[in-house]
Structures are given as structure tokens and as C-alpha cells.
Write a structure and sequence with these properties.
about 65% helix, globular, about 0% strand, single chain, about 210 residues, 10 helices, mainly alpha
Length: about 210
């Protein structure tokens, strides 16, 4: 997370401060099971209504409002260009809270569609992204006198079980040998969504002595 940015104690958006405290576990045992069920119901409704709001936003928000909201992304692009001009083509600027939020939104979108477990839903997910990109480009070019053709595409491929095993093996081989550092790295990989909870639990069982015997 970005240093100095408070992800919980800030103005209300989709979630209230108490909603955020609930989701991050800060409320502890303060709520009963019924309270927790009610809170989850309220949060689902907030998210749904926020999504419905984008139908209103996309058709009525002025382009200069888009530009002000997305200024952090433009600044990231300018910094990336400066690095490239300095010959640092492999370097990349850090993600601020704005881009971290967008990364999480895309993760939320993908997780929700993929959990259905249907090939048709995966195809729907891809189709919505492609059409949304096309519509966004057309909206951003409304003031242009040149009507450029647009063709957006998204290809999502899932690796085989062997590729997944190789990926896990590479991550595991790079784990620190010292027990505390190893545990910290495993938790970091889990929070970055690079390994699942089952793999994280398995790896957390190893200590520094086990590394030499693997």
C-alpha cells in the first residue's frame, strides 16, 4: 500500500468508514453473527448501486472531469516516459493509491465473473472488456474531427497444471532461508495474489531447517 495513505479513515465512497473497518477485520468481535450478515448485505447493495451509477456517469460526466480524476494515471505515464528517455527502459514508476485501486477493481471484476465456473461467463467477461474499451475510445475521440477505426481485443489464457507447478517451484526456491524472513515473504506472495491460501499454509509450515532437506 502507498505510504501515508489511509485506506480506511477517509471520506465515504462506496463504503463508509465502518464498512471498511468491518471488511478489514478492525471491528473484531464487536458484531454479532446477525450484525455481520446485515453488514454484508448492506455492502453488497452499496457495491451494486455504485456499479449502476457508472451507467449514469459514463453518459453524463464531462470529459474535463474525466481528465481531473485520471490525472494520477497521466502523471505515471509522464514519469514512465522520463525513465525511458533516460535509458531506464526496464524501470517502472511505483503505483500510487489511484492505480492500486484500479488494479483491485480489475481483480474484483475478474474474480466475480470467473467464480461462476462457466466458459460462457469467461467469454462474457472478455466481451464486456473489449466493447467497453471500444466505447471508451470513441467517447474520448468525440471532439476529434477524424473518426478513426477502432478494434479492441483481449486474450486470456490459463496455464496448464505443469506450468503452475513450475511457477510455484520457482517462487519456493527463491524464498529466504531464515524462518521469519521466509514467513514474511510467503505472506507477501499471498497478499499479492501470487499464491493461494492452501499453498501459503503449506509453505508456512516449513522452517529454516526444512529448507536444506527439500
Amino acid at each position: 500500500m502507498t505510504d501515508g495513505f489511509d485506506w480506511v479513515d477517509r471520506g465515504s465512497g462506496i463504503l463508509t468508514k465502518r464498512d471498511r473497518q468491518f471488511l478489514t477485520g478492525e471491528l473484531g468481535e464487536e458484531l454479532t453473527e446477525n450484525d455481520r450478515n446485515v453488514k454484508r448485505y448492506e455492502i453488497r447493495n452499496r457495491i451494486l448501486n455504485a456499479l449502476y451509477d457508472f451507467k449514469v456517469i459514463s453518459g453524463n460526466l464531462q470529459l474535463r472531469d474525466y481528465q481531473q480524476i485520471f490525472e494520477p494515471a497521466y502523471e505515471w505515464g509522464r514519469e514512465r516516459r522520463r525513465l525511458n528517455e533516460d535509458g531506464r527502459t526496464t524501470a517502472s514508476p511505483d503505483f500510487g493509491e489511484f492505480l492500486q485501486a484500479w488494479l483491485s477493481l480489475i481483480e474484483f471484476y475478474t474474480t466475480g465473473f470467473y467464480l461462476g465456473g462457466l466458459v460462457e461467463t469467461d467469454q462474457l467477461m472478455q466481451g464486456l472488456v473489449e466493447e467497453g474499451i471500444e466505447r471508451g475510445f470513441r467517447m474520448s475521440n468525440l471532439s476529434s474531427q477524424v473518426r478513426q477505426p477502432i478494434s479492441a481485443g483481449l486474450s486470456v489464457e490459463y496455464g496448464s497444471e505443469m506450468l503452475l507447478q513450475n511457477y510455484h517451484a520457482e517462487l519456493k526456491n527463491d524464498l529466504p532461508r531464515e524462518a521469519d524472513a521466509r514467513a514474511e515473504r510467503v505472506m507477501q506472495l499471498y497478499h499479492e495474489r501470487k499464491i493461494g491460501s492452501k499453498v501459503a499454509q503449506q509453505w508456512m509450515q516449513y522452517n529454516a531447517r526444512d529448507v536444506n532437506s527439500e
